[in-house]
């Protein structure tokens, strides 16, 4: 088997990748570990055959790193990494259950911040100093609102003593969309800080297992009684009464438990004491009812229609010497009223037009060493989605945005950052963004609020934008009012998001990156990037699999005889086939990358595997392009009619063209889709036609458990539906 495929000629400038001795590098299906590196290239040693080595030039290794089959796991073969995998049964945070990740991340933040204080000389390792330092750290984390876990009203009493952190108005706990009124009460629950002995144990664990957040996973994931405690007639009666909960009678748990107790007492009449049944507890009844799932419960109690509606789903003095040594992220409010006033247009607009003018928020990320803008998004609100898109742009190639805006310089700067500093507002200081940064083995830095100098590089850039970008907006006026002539400033004053995004992108890539920068002693940011990446090297940005793990949209799908079905596309892999043959139709956790429908990640027995799309030509096809193509196919084909592969390919070509046009219009103003967007698209667009079978189904034994045959019994794959609740509700007690 060939380990390396032929690669095209490299670009004139190729960054030099950096490997550590214990890294694992996977090219195709072959695992390597670094053996030697110099200015000419790398020598890699095969893991399966340690006596076999292969040489790779820097150009060749860079091109191979962009291939789909490339994987790079830092320190995979280090002893501490092996001890970590044996001890916690996981490799990265994405392997943990959702309820475990916030606790692990909190432990990681507490431990790393204490280590930083100790190394800076701010404290010692005496018990008194540790307690004082932990008090400061935990108070700071509480203010930063890390890993909030909302507490529902019915569970406050029993969770107040053990819940992590919850700051939520009492009236908002049940209905998050309701605005809090004056004088409303707020429940604040603090995490219990660790004792000095516990902190010493956490530090020892990190030293033994490697400084990775997942090292701090405790053993509670292995706990729990796995033997059924309720059996026989008691179990039958429990099931009988529990099945009455999701019905239109809408009984409450306490009423069902009273009826269950009466049935148990009736059964025990006349029996000796040793043969009498013990009534299951109210908690056991509630757990059985919870097993139905929230959607089924709500649909049974209030009707399917109501259920569908409910569940529709840093300072300038900081010294950095390497590219991506520190990335700063922040948002800036673009006040269009001030902008239009500055250019002399506001007073010329009528009252209706003035009321329609809205504000925009510009979220960006900058490399403090080279001053390169590595991510930028223009949005109506400073949302978490905008922050996540900026973070992904920092880890991805952005040439498509530059090309769509008509820029001449490349916007391909990306790598794995060594540190990330963010504003402490809710756009960045939330569990979603913090966990995404932790997946990069980083602890996000939140400089103190109200001190812009702590993020001097980012704040300086925003000032530059405010001073230089005004002259590039249409609707500008001139100092001499007479000089305007027939220029319709009032008609051009209502600026569109797409036009602002295009102008801003073009200005960033060409004007800002290509202009001399005072902070670089007159060197341009693009020239500084090229020079330092060649001199210092960079850590390769996360591969496709890690990007999918971090930014993939979490979904739950049923595994059927056709594989995993998402957006009318079917996905298979060898572990998935084996899982289907052993377990049949079961629900699976999957993650879908909206920028690449060629593969998705599926969780099988706690391990994530890449499942490939069985349909051809879906590599690097975006979710937006496929939705456009599906809409066209649904309009042009009658309900239930099969679609040929040629029709799908033609629709994809047209949709890709429209998507590129949309990218040219909106650019950085677009936001990534959510789980609700996928559910809505599946309900509205995917039910009028059927995808054709792959042409090589008979040849892909790994993609079809029947090895090219046809199923003769069993149910068809289910139509896509609602995958889970979009808001919480409680089982009525």
UniProtKB/TrEMBL annotation:
Residues 724-733 have a biased composition (Acidic residues). GO terms for molecular function: nucleic acid binding. Residues 153-181, 696-733 are annotated as: Disordered. InterPro entries: Integrase_cat-core, RNaseH-like_sf, RNaseH_sf, Transposase-like_Mu_C. Pfam families: Mu-transpos_C (PF09299). SUPFAM superfamilies: Ribonuclease H-like (SSF53098). GO terms for biological process: DNA integration. Residues 319-533 form the Integrase catalytic domain. It comes from the Bacteria. This is Putative transposase. The lineage of its organism: Bacteria, Pseudomonadati, Pseudomonadota, Alphaproteobacteria, Hyphomicrobiales.
